[in-house]
Design brief:
It comes from Pseudoduganella namucuonensis. By secondary structure, the chain is an alpha/beta fold. About 35% of the residues are buried. Helix content is about 30%, strand content about 30%. Bound molecules: adenosine-5'-triphosphate.
Amino acid sequence: MSNIAISARDLTVRRGAATIVDNMSLDIPAGAVVGLVGRNGAGKSTLLRCLAGTVAPDRGEARLLDEPSLRLSDAARARVGCVEQAPDLCHWMGVAEHLAVVGEAYPQWTQRRCVELAAQFNLNLGASVGKLSGGQRQSLALVLAMAHDPEVLLLDEPVSSLDPVARREFMRALFDAPRGRTVVISSHILGDLERVVSHVAFVRAGRLQLFDTWDAILEHVRLAPDAAGVPAGAIIGAHETGCVYDTRLAPGHSGIGRAPTLDELFSELNK
Ligand SMILES: Nc1ncnc2c1ncn2[C@@H]1O[C@H](COP(=O)(O)OP(=O)(O)OP(=O)(O)O)[C@@H](O)[C@H]1O
């Protein structure tokens, strides 16, 4: 297997006259934890669905674990876990029954891990799915996605309804994997993301605005009070109150400014 766990090549999705994913290409190395960020409607969910193979692009291709996402083998599918933004759960079942039914589809599913995760997320196995709160439904969706210990996790705003304790437990569970796990996680909770990501992908209006390791961004991207003297080709975002630029594209420039937080970078790139 190549070192690339997930890739997109020229991905384009159109809905009516709108292009909602616009010619996106990226390669995600195995073991990376990618924070997918962007404003509401930027195209994150659609990109994640293309990567998962649940939406067919109008152009281009997504690949997971060296296979086309749209035609994943059962063996590859068993190595992937997904959480949709609005998880499709069986409301008429009990939590334990729901877990057991889904678990039958995965050879690597273990009841022990399932029970551990449920306890970690404070999920009552005896409850009815239809009576769960929004956060509890999200916890169930996470247990369903993680109990077979997948190598790849595609998570669309998985913590938006979780309380701070459950969010912390989720972040811990994410990194409890015995081997490096590849994760793409969209979230608007940038403080959490900043602590766990190896890479960040900024999406704006269907386009991939910036994709890099977080370490490289911290080392090379600078937030400066203005664009004076910064070569135009190095500027990632500029406006009246500041400028974000990549020092790698500004050789000889004095490197004014400081490294942005993820929150600041998000604001600067979306002004
Ligand atoms: N089936 C569809 N038909 C028409 N437009 C759609 C469809 N699905 C998504 N869109 C539009 O595509 C754009 C991107 O939607 P998407 O759900 O991918 O954004 P997002 O970045 O995940 O947003 P959010 O952060 O609010 O979840 C939005 O403008 C949305 O209205």
